[in-house]
Amino acid sequence: MSLWRLASAVPLALSACGPRLPPAAPIPEEAVRHEVLTTEPFRQRLPSKPADLVIRYGAENHGSLETCGCPRRPRGALARWAGYAEAADAAAPAPSVRLHAGYWLADALDYMGQPRLDAEEMDRWAMLGLSAAGFDALNVSAHDVAGLVRVPPDPTLPLVSANISGPGIRKWVIVERGGQRVGVTGISGEAASMADTSAYPMVAPSQAAPVLAELVAQTDVVVLLAWNANEAVRGLLKAVPGIDVVIDAGFYIDSLPPVLSRGAVWTFAEYQMVRAGELRLTLDAGRVVGAVDRHIDLDDAVPDRADILSIQRRARTAIDAVQREHYGGGGAG
Predict the structure, then answer these.
(1) 52 CB contacts (<8 Å, ≥6 apart)?
(2) pLDDT in tens, 189-227
(3) Is residue 181 part of a domain?
(4) How far apart, in Å, are the Cα atoms of 267 and each of 59, 164, 292?
(5) What whole-number percentage of the chain has pLDDT above 70?
């Protein structure tokens, strides 16, 4: 994997306001910490220290509301992710945003290369669950586009992309938390698909620089969500000063520590949302000066949020019915 290779700069079109000035000094390495909570009792996994802004993140549940399905200690499930978020907000109250780094819909094909009908059913229920979870922004990945072609986007979902356009997608979202204007956009690399995705044209993620520059000029904290776009992220960080946080997804099957790159805290979301990502930021005049990147196992010690668990159970019944009707099976994840 070429994660650590430098990419060349990309052209930058600045807005009239120009980007925010970089911090007077870079964030010191010791100001960014990594915590992984695995088998501790649930109460010990909750945060105990304050933060100026919390970014709750996840990625790659690809149409499923359920656990990873592992035979030994299955983890994940949107109801647990939301249940942890509610408990953590109560344990250590702080302004927070909820973000998804991409690949939240299913795009599975059958043996003839056609979209599976159970995938369409999964996507309808996934959108309902994601809406209930209260995400502030969801990055549209190339895989998600294939799902959106078949199932129109839920208008309550704040879908963002700086390199994919189409129905229901915004260039960015800006939310205010704790007196800070937090701007969020996303990029996606390519993904193989048999679907006709012409309704959602996509340009190279490296071309997102003008969008990011506009967002930097309007906000205090800028978050870039990225799916399968390591090299583009590196080029964008070089081209656009003022990006504060990168939430990166790309089939990461273990908890990677965050890195500092050109003033940005770059974190990595785990595949299938098996752990909740929780980035607790310390800010000074709207700039990040410290961060604790926490990854919390979502095993059965984590309480489910009841309303999303109800959606999950109803989804399973509906998906099983479609699988029995069209494929002669049922109960598959």
Answers:
(1) 94, 95, 178, 180, 281, 282, 283
(2) 998 877 788 999 999 999 999 999 999 999 999 999 999
(3) yes
(4) 12, 22, 10
(5) 90
pLDDT recorded at residue 3: 31
Residue 26 pLDDT > 80, yes or no?
Answer: no
Confidence of residue 20 (pLDDT cuts 50, 70, 90): low
pTM value is 0.91
Give the pLDDT score at 4. Answer: 28
CB contact at 8 A, 169 and 140: yes
Give the residue from 146, 71, 75, 73 showing the smallest Cα distance to 104.
Answer: 146
Rounded Cα distance between 246 and 260, Å, is 10
Domain that holds residue 90: 31-39+49-327
Asked if residue 173 belongs to a domain, the reply is: yes
Give the count of domains, the chain: 1
Amino acid present at 274: V
d(CA 291, CA 16): 31
Number of alpha helices (DSSP H) and beta strands (DSSP E) in the chain = 7, 14
Q: What is the pLDDT of residues 85-110, one digit of tens each?
A: 999 999 999 999 999 999 999 988 77
CA distances from 233 to 1, 34, 208, 237, 252 (A): 14, 21, 10, 6, 16
Residue at 9 is within a domain:
no
**200 DSSP 8-state letter:** S
For residue 229, the domain's CATH number is: 3.60.21.10
Residue 276 is assigned to a structural domain of this protein: yes
